[in-house]
Write a structure and sequence with these properties.
This protein is α/β, with parallel strands linked by helices. The protein has a single domain, classed as Rossmann fold, CATH 3.40.50. Helices cover about 30% and strands about 20% of the residues. The protein has helices at about 10-25, 40-45, 75-80, 105-120, 170-175, 190-200, and strands spanning about 1-5, 30-35, 55-60, 65, 95, 125-130, 155-160, 165-170, 180-185, 215-220. The strands form 2 sheets. A 7-stranded parallel beta sheet has the order 1-10-9-6-2-3-5, sandwiched between helices. It has a 3-stranded antiparallel beta sheet with strand order 4-8-7. It is globular and about 40 Å long.
């Protein structure tokens, strides 16, 4: 089910949705995937001030640039600086994509870590945060790239011709196994893309966000 929220208080609404998702969960361990980019930065800052059971959380990242964890472009670094370093989460429960490795190996290592924790089942996130770009990409699933059609692997290296770079990204089979997905999008161009997609435009990568059993909330600011 798709739910669209046009928000005048984007950060506080995002935090509220995240907190509600955590409080409503019946799982002993809450699995949440973080997204990169500029949009979630203020959300992470605000979330760091909330009293949550961080010791019971497992955190992943939906994509990563091929850079070391201390690099300014690292999604992990942004989340660590704004959120993870400020809350009492167990280091062993933070599963980052190792962007310093060869992208094929980084994808393999991340998937291996997830499969070990999944115990033969699909690794199911309780909440997956996703951003989106003005070209309709989400995570590092860009238009006309090979990873869009991945059916088996959970984490995949993806070459992005328009940027001339490799990325490592969750695939749609893993994304769509989530219990709940929160898509964060700001600006009129992105709002139009979401509207077009919900009205039947299936040419955009975001149109492939379709959880098997979960719900999608599109938070538009």
């Amino acid at each position: 089910m798709n739910k669209v929220i046009n928000s005048d208080n984007f950060v506080s609404d995002a935090v509220s949705i995240i907190k509600s998702s955590i409080s409503e969960s019946n799982e002993s361990q809450f699995r949440m995937s973080l997204c990169g980019g500029g949009t979630p930065r203020a959300i992470y800052h605000a979330l760091a001030k909330e009293e949550l059971l961080w010791e019971n959380m497992e955190v992943t990242f939906s994509d990563e640039r091929c850079v070391p964890p201390e690099h300014e472009e690292s999604n992990y670094k942004m989340a660590a600086d704004t959120l993870l370093s400020k809350v009492p989460i167990k280091e062993s429960n933070v599963i980052r994509i190792q962007g310093e490795l060869d992208p094929v190996e980084a994808a393999h290592q991340c998937e291996l870590a997830l499969r070990k924790r999944a115990l033969g089942e699909v690794y199911q996130h309780d909440l997956m945060l996703l951003g989106m770009g003005e070209d309709g990409h989400t995570a590092s699933l860009f238009p006309q790239t090979n990873a869009l059609n991945e059916k088996e692997r959970w984490v995949i290296d993806n070459y992005v011709p328009e940027k001339g770079v490799n990325r490592v990204t969750f695939s749609f089979p893993l994304i769509n196994a989530s219990r709940k997905i929160l898509v964060l999008a700001t600006g009129e161009p992105k709002k139009k893309l979401v509207s077009d997609m919900l009205n039947g435009d299936n040419t955009l990568p975001i149109s492939k966000i379709a959880p098997d059993i979960g719900d999608v909330t599109w938070l538009l600011g």
